[in-house]
Amino acid sequence: MNLHSPLSIVCLWTALLSVCLTNQSRLPAQDQENQPSAETEQAQKAQALKHAQQGQTYLKQKHWKKAIAEFQAAIKLQPENSMLHYLLSVSYLEDSQGSLAWIEVRKAVLLDLKNQNAMQQFLKFWSFFDKQGVLNVGTPEVEVLKLLGPPDRKQEQGADTRLTYGFMWLTLRNASLFAVIDTRGLEAEYTKALQTMEFELGPDWRVGYRLMNGTSALTEYVTTEETVQKYQQLFSTQRLFKLGKETSAEDMMKRMKSLIEQSYEVETWTVISDGQDDVIFEWKVAASDKTPAQHEINRIVRGKRDIHRLAYVTRKLPLSEADRKKWIEELKSARVVLANPGKQPLTPEQKAELVKQLTTKSREIIALQLKYIQAGDVESMRPFFTERLRDRITKESLAEAKEQAASATPEELVHSVTIEEVGDGIQAKIKMKNGRTLTTLVPVNRKWEADTIWFK
Length: 456
Fold this sequence. Notes:
15 helices, elongated, Protein Transport Mog1p, Chain A, eleven-stranded mixed beta sheet, alpha+beta, Serine Threonine Protein Phosphatase 5, Tetratricopeptide repeat, four-stranded antiparallel beta sheet
C-alpha cells in the first residue's frame, strides 16, 4: 500500500535533523549522577546525527535496507527522537515492510505530536484502515488485530477492552469494536455528556460508526444492508463540545454553510425552521471528485453546554417530497434530554423535567407495545425490557395478554411517573390510573428499560 508522499516531499534538511538531535531535554544537575557524562552525551548525539545523515543519503539513493540499518543505529543512540522513528518508518514503507512502518510511525507521533511529517503518515495509515471498514462498530476484535496488528497497549475494563495505537484508542465491548477515540486535545470533562438528543430510527437502522475527538462526539447510523464507507442513506448525531456556551444554533448553521460552500458546489440551501437556539435547514450539493451528489437535512439545537446536531443524508436522488417531510418531522420530534440520568444527582427542576419526558415517552412506547402484543411480535417487544427478562417474553406470553391488551389505553396504563433514588442511581415507577404500579424503568446505556413484565 502506498501511504506516503513522494520521497522528495518527506526528505528532511540535515540542519533540521541536527536541531532535533541536539535540543534534547536535560535533567537537573542533581538528577544526573547515574546519567552519561556531558561529553558522552554529545558524542552519542554526534554519532546519531552521522547515522541519520547517512540514512538520508541512502533514502535518496533508494537503498532502503541500508537506510533502515542507519536509522536503527541512530535510534539506539537517541531512542526518544521522534524524527528518527519517522525516518525509519519511511524506510520500512519504501522497503514494503508496512507493519514495521506502522509501529515506528506510532512511536514518532507519541514522542512528538507536533511532528507534522509523522502525523501525516500516521493519519494516512489510519485512513487506509478506515476505508477497509475495520474501524466500524461491530468489527470483531480478531479482525481489528489482524489488520492493525498488536496494539501499543491493551487494557481490560470490565466488559470493555481498550486497544491503544499511537494517540488513537479503540474501545471494544464484548470482543467487538464499540467506538474510536482520538485523544489529541480531548478533555475528560467533555467525554461525559450533560444532555443528549433522543430520537427513534426504527429497526432498519443500526450504529455504523462512533468517534470522539477533541471537539465532538459523533455517531453515524446506516441501514442494515449498508456501511458508512458505502451508503445511500446516513443518519448522524453529533455533540459539539462547549459550543452551547459560546454560540447560537443559528450562528452555528451559518458557520457550517460557509465551510460547506468552501468545499462543495452547493445547489440549494434552505432554512426550514429558524430560531436562535433551534434551527432546521437543508441543502443539496452537486457531485464532485470528493462525494456523490447528495441531499442533507439538519437540525441544530443549543444545549446548556454543548451544541447538538442531527442530520439525515441521502444519495438516493431526488428525495421525494413525502420522504422529505417524513425526515423533517423525524428531526423535529427529537428532544434534548438529560444524559445518563442514573449516574448523577438530579436537581428538583431536572427531576420534574424527567418525569414530564418519561410520561410522554412511556405512553408512546406502551402504544407500540400494545400493537406488538396483538401481532405476537416477540422480537420487537424484547428490546424494551432488561436483559434478564427478554427470554421470558415469548409467543405464548403475548398470546395470553392479547385479550386484555385489546381494551387497554396508554393513558390508563401510564397515569403518572415517580422518580426514586436507589443506591447511587435512580429508577422510575410507572403508576396506572387505578394506583397500581405498572412497571419499573431503569436507565441502561442511555435508554430506559422495563425491569418487570407489565403485561402478565
